[in-house]
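lol ok so funny story. i was supposed to be doing the assay writeup but got distracted and ended up predicting the structure for this chain instead. priorities right. anyway since i did it might as well share w the group, maybe its usefull for someone
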Amino acid sequence: MAARNVAFVTARRPLLVEGTGMALTAAAFGVVYGLAARNAGLSLAEAIAMSVFVFAGASQFAALGLIAQAAPWPAVIVLTAVLNARHLLYSAALLPWLRPRPAAERALMAHLLTDEAFALSLHHFQRLGRTDVRGYWLAAGLIFVPWNVATIVGVLGGQVIPDPRRFGVDVIFPAAMAALAVLLVRRRRDLVAAVVGVAVAVSLGLAVDPAVGVLAGGLGGPLMAMLVPGRPLSPPEIATGDELDPSLGATP
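and the output, tada:
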């Protein structure tokens, strides 16, 4: 029991370090989103509701562009759904690790699933060699909380924030995600998915539109990786973290 406690706590330390960096970028872009939401005509309550119930950074920015242009609501829904289609792949990758969990819990996990939460939690599971449900909630919370708090800050006081592109802030998020992607590469399939995904995303992003590039890269990389022969993975060992000593800071 003591050895297992140490293993979980030791594994969560790098998760916390990696997640803190992502939390800072989530907060920065949350402020920018809050500013954009107000400029698009959303009230504070509407901006907060979108961050809580939609919680999909890139899709939220895309939706704001359509809202500002008075686009019909079906168009907004279809665009956000298409941009978030990559989450189907994220969910499929996490299913072997989380299959034993109750459906209601997995539904809530799916709501909090973001690019960052996926990369952080999957790398954490792989590093630990087993599922750590509390580790997933930690990864998701490190993105959800700062994004929503920053949304409020952006709506209320974002007028003092200049265009982030003037300072190159817009490249911080992609760079951080690229670093996490490197950590996930462990097999040939991972490498093929990463290389193809980046190549497609960058090419189409420059030639057509960044949103199109992200979507095509997110779908094309994994689909191409499926064509690469590989050994089947054994089911991961499932652990909730309930065996941790409460004094170590674990919460239900």
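The chain has a mean pLDDT of 76. Residues 2-162 form one domain.
back to the writeup now i swear
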